[in-house]
Design a protein that fits this description.
The protein is about 40% helix and about 20% strand. The chain is of the alpha/beta class. The strands form 4 sheets. Strands 17, 18, 19, 20, 21, 22, 23 and 24 form an 8-stranded antiparallel beta sheet that branches. A 7-stranded mixed beta sheet has the order 1-2-6-5-3-4-7, with helices on both faces. Strand 23 and strand 24 form a beta hairpin.
């Protein structure tokens, strides 16, 4: 508690405004436990930037933590581009305080003589990535906490290629941030360096999205789509994008079309959660829709439901959706003629079906850590040498082409709807296309368990769990011997049969992945953006005939349940 109290006492100095000082004093007097959590550490940049609960404190999102981050970024930009006029694009989502935080951030940058392009209202995260590239900015910032609960907000930094910052920029910026004193933050902005972005940028972004997916016009007027923004930013763009792409039979969940940072109609605005899409699925059943699409608050991720052979709506997981999207893109590329430079992108906890698809189409599959900044990094490193087709991660994110360098629900929505329309026009369906892919590769089934451990004690518990896995790794899972262990913290892949060790050429991360003799894959990873530890399960089998799907699925489901029980 002493360290937290020392930090809190600093926030009582006159470097901080009257309202902040009063809030800190109130915590000291009334809520020592909250004071401890608010000040026991500094917010850190994780896989998705800086994200946390809003409030006073070094471990909270507020004008001073955002201010230090932005002043540190400004200092880094000055060092990196000393001779040029610097510019930064800023977007924000619908969350409580996002707009005011965005204005604070904009003022700090203009106060540092950096030109700012600020969106005039909430916009999807992928549009920010597009704007950075479109305007030739040196960096970009999004104020968002993605799908976190309403009390959260966050801050993501993008580099001049439109991708989130990675080494060495991230570490260098963090060093600058850590050296910023509150008194050094330039809160007083310069209006002449501020320019607002509106409809003109929206239209350029929408047209670029449409250009990525215009493979066919078949069935676009017949396919019936239900869309929900779940109170988030995508309502500003996706309906117009669908219309521009030729989809006319679109039905919006009106109750969830109202932007609201409290997300009043859902427990969580996360399209990974079935409950988040319930209203959309109810509407789809009422009108007989073919496909349901819902996006998270900052519109970088999407959830999809489609009809199975019995006509029942089925929620797809991120791996299943991405399998269909990447297969379709590869089919189209194959039809146009491959030139041998193509590659797709994935992550270490995403389904290994991506490797099977890469082998089937004779392209490379590059793999990175969790987080789309690593897929953007692949594209950056391959610029001018290889062609990125598409890529995704299991947590409902996908990217089409490289015009946007972050996961993009807008273009992915258009692509999913095109696939559904084209399949229906050919007497198939999105669901049936997925099963055809399983037949030509293998049938993979995945599941995920997230365990929430909040606060300082929770962080210690998660750390202990990972330490226990390293000290006493399981020898087998479901009766199948563990044959390989990848430890990304020490960058070593160990063959447990031969003892042979190989280095992992991916940045270090606190992730363990176990591979078994029968092809199962079990991963453990503390989240970089939430107080959670996540366990990923992947099992597979051959699927010779679509008619065998239900039997095989039951077998794999039972296997995953046994793995969960074994892990307790």
């Amino acid at each position: 508690m002493n360290n937290a109290m020392e930090r809190a006492n600093l926030w009582l100095s006159e470097q901080y405004d009257v309202e902040t000082r009063k809030s800190v004093q109130d915590l000291m007097n009334q809520d020592p436990a909250e004071l401890e959590d608010a000040f026991y550490k500094d917010l850190e940049f994780g896989t998705g930037g800086m994200r946390g609960i809003m409030g006073v404190g070094t471990n909270r999102i507020n004008k001073y933590t955002l201010g230090a981050a932005t002043q540190g970024l400004a200092n880094y930009l000055k060092l990196t581009f000393p001779e040029k006029e610097k510019s930064v694009a800023i977007a924000y989502d619908v969350r409580n305080n996002s707009e005011s935080f965005a204005r604070i951030v904009a003022d700090i940058l203009t106060g540092n003589d950096i030109k700012v392009y600020l969106f005039e209202g909430f916009r999807p995260t992928p549009e920010l990535s597009f704007a950075v590239r479109n305007l030739n900015c040196d960096a970009g910032i999004v104020l968002t906490a993605s799908h976190n609960p309403p009390e959260y907000n966050g801050y993501k930094v993008y580099w001049n290629d439109g991708g989130q910052i990675v080494p060495p920029q991230d570490e260098a910026i963090i060093n600058e941030v850590n050296n910023v004193k509150a008194s050094e933050i330039q809160f007083q902005g310069k209006e002449d360096l501020l320019q607002f972005l509106g409809k003109e940028m929206d239209q350029a972004f929408i047209q670029a999205c449409v250009n990525q997916i215009g493979f066919t016009q078949k069935g676009k007027e017949e396919i019936k789509i239900v869309f929900t923004s779940i109170h988030g930013t995508s309502i500003a763009i996706i309906p117009d994008a669908l219309k521009a792409a030729g989809f006319t039979n679109v039905h919006i969940v009106e109750e969830q079309a109202i932007p609201n940072g409290n997300f009043p109609t859902v427990k969580s605005p996360n399209p990974e959660e079935p409950a988040a899409l319930k209203m959309a699925m109810d509407l789809a059943d009422e009108i007989g829709a073919d496909i349901v699409i819902g996006t998270d608050p900052d519109a970088d991720r999407l959830g999809i439901a489609v009809r199975n052979f019995d006509g029942k709506l089925v929620l797809l997981n991120g791996n299943q959706t991405n399998t269909v999207l990447v297969d379709y893109l590869l089919q189209q590329r194959q039809n146009d003629g491959m030139d041998g430079t193509e590659f797709i992108g994935s992550t270490i906890v995403t389904s290994d079906i991506f490797f099977d698809l890469a082998e089937y189409y004779n392209v490379e599959c590059k793999v990175g850590l969790t987080g789309f900044k690593w897929i953007a990094d692949m594209i950056r490193k391959a610029e001018g040498k290889q062609t990125f087709i598409g890529g995704g991660e299991e947590s409902f994110g996908f990217m089409v082409g490289d015009f946007v360098r972050d996961k993009d629900s807008v273009t992915s929505t258009l692509l999913a709807c095109e696939i559904a329309a084209n399949a229906k026009a050919n007497d198939s369906s999105f669901y049936e296309e997925l099963l055809h892919i399983y037949c030509k590769t293998q049938f993979y089934k995945e599941d995920l368990i997230s365990i929430t451990k909040k606060g300082k004690d929770g962080a210690a518990e998660i750390s202990q769990m990972m330490a226990e896995f390293r000290q006493n790794p399981p020898k087998s899972f479901d009766g199948s011997k563990v044959v390989r262990l990848d430890d990304y913290q020490i960058s070593v892949s160990k063959n447990l049969s031969s003892g042979e060790e190989n280095s992992i050429d991916i940045p270090k991360s606190n992730v363990l992945i176990f591979y078994t003799e029968d092809g199962s894959k079990i991963a453990a990873r503390p989240s970089g953006t939430e107080p959670k530890i996540k366990f990923y399960f992947s099992v597979k089998t051959n699927l010779d005939e679509i008619s065998d799907f239900e039997i095989k699925e039951d077998e794999l489901t039972a296997k995953i349940e046994r793995l969960k029980i074994e892990l307790n």
